[in-house]
Design goal:
Elements (H helix, E strand, L loop, with lengths): L7 E6 L3 H4 L2 E3 L4 E10 L16 E5 L3 H9 L4 E5 L2 H9 L5 E5 H10 L3 E3 L8 E9 L3 H16 L2 H17 L1
Parallel strand pairs: 4-5, 4-6
Antiparallel strand pairs: 1-8, 2-8, 3-6, 3-7, 3-8
Amino acid sequence: IPANKIDLAIAGICPTDERKQTVDFSDIYINAEQKILVRGEDADKYKSLSDFAGKKVGAQKSTTQETLANTEIQNASVVALDKVPDLILELLNGKIDGIVIESVVAQQYIIANPSLQLSDATFTNNLKPTAIALAKNNDSMLEVVNKVIKENQDNGNFDKWIQEYSEKATNNAK
């Protein structure tokens, strides 16, 4: 959070040890499953991570997905791009063979592009915890944020919001 100009950052942020050096994190509000998005016609070819050996696998640059692609998919060429839509185009055009992506994000692209589907391949570190980043040592705000997270987990709002906003994102993309 640059120069204390921002109180909160909410954008699918994974609380890594490196990030914890500069910001505090809320409790986890979503544990997204990491998957590989492939063209439906190729789904039978990619059932395990080893099936991606010698293939091109995409991931968003400087993300936990890029790290996962580099550490858990052996002998694949990782193509890191700045934006997921660019990776989707590369996949649809056959320039890459799969994309390491959060399942929640992938669902939006599958709805918009029915020719895509998730591979059966599974990662050892398949869950990506997502939290809110806060300026260091703002304990009173952290307490409030954690209370709101707990309330909305308990009442099912997070699941409802994921569904609702996935549908909105898909409709906006059409």
